Amino acid sequence: MLLRGFFGAHELIYKGTGGRIGHRVPGLPPMLLLDHVGAKSGTKRTTPLVYIPHGDSMVIVASKGGHPKHPAWFHNLRANPQTEVQAGTRRIPVTARVAGDEERDRLWPKVVDAYGGYAGYQKRTGRKIPLVVLDPR
Question: For 34, which of 82, 87, 101, 133 is 20 to 30 Å away at the CA?
Answer without folding.
Answer: 101
